[in-house]
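Entry:
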Amino acid sequence: MLEPVALPKARLEAITDGMFAVTMTLLVLDLRLPGNLMEGELWRALVAQATAIDDYVISFVVLCVFWIGHLRLLRRLESIDTAFTSYNLAFLLFTTFVPILTAFAGHNPGRTAPAVLYGANLIAILGAEMTMWRHALPPLVNSSVTDAEGAWRLVRRKLLIAMCVVLVGMVLAIVEIRAGFNAGFASYTYLLLVVVGVVHPAVPRARAAARTKPARVSASRE
């Protein structure tokens, strides 16, 4: 009989990085700028593409947040198993939908369905990420995780907040479209994922350092 063995984490990291690189590159292919233009015409062409450029930048930033979150997760893992690999592949599946849904929403600014599909896909990505964390804590993590349950509560709270951010963005997009205002400002709500996924994790460390600093100073005085 074959005993269960740990799968090579490096292979999972390689395919994840590769698919993120391809997905983030595909985003830019939807941008179209005509050639052989005079200077004034060039600026008008850029202004005409402003909405598409906004969609590209927002989706690129969102994918960066997801990639950084996944990078943090893999740094905490000692090993991976078949179930975790399956969840990771589902995570990648939903990320590969981002370019086509970005283009779909950009080409149909006056319709609610593309905006809803875009937001629903982001929630699916966050759900897959949450599933990976839940499965990894505590059996797959390394010694960097000293409190698996506490880590899970922190991660779950962050991901639920991120889902709420996406839901707010979806609702604002629907309201914006129903009101006939198709500038696409509601999509900027998704940039708040940067605060949840990148800035927020540094806050507890900063507060912890601030709390321990006075104790260290008083100990040195003694």
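Residues 9-221 form one domain.
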